[in-house]
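Course assignment 3, question 2. Fill in each field.
Student: A.L.
Task: Predict the tertiary structure for the chain below.
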Amino acid sequence: MAEKAKGKMEQAKGKAREAAGKVTGNERMEAEGKMDEAKGKAREAAGKAEEQARGVDDSLRGRSQET
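Answer field:
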């Protein structure tokens, strides 16, 4: 869950940075904001995949204990 939350925070930071870059005309800051947003999306996706893997692992463990 932590990776998903970190990803969402990074996305929010990126959006804010991108908006600040647009307002000030700072293309570098705008580009850095887009990169932060992309990193955040990747981190969130990794967190989701980790949760799914953990769920599969838990379900497999439960099945092996039942038999």
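Instructor remarks: The mean pLDDT is 89. Residues 14 and 35 are 7 Å apart (CA to CA).
Grade: pending
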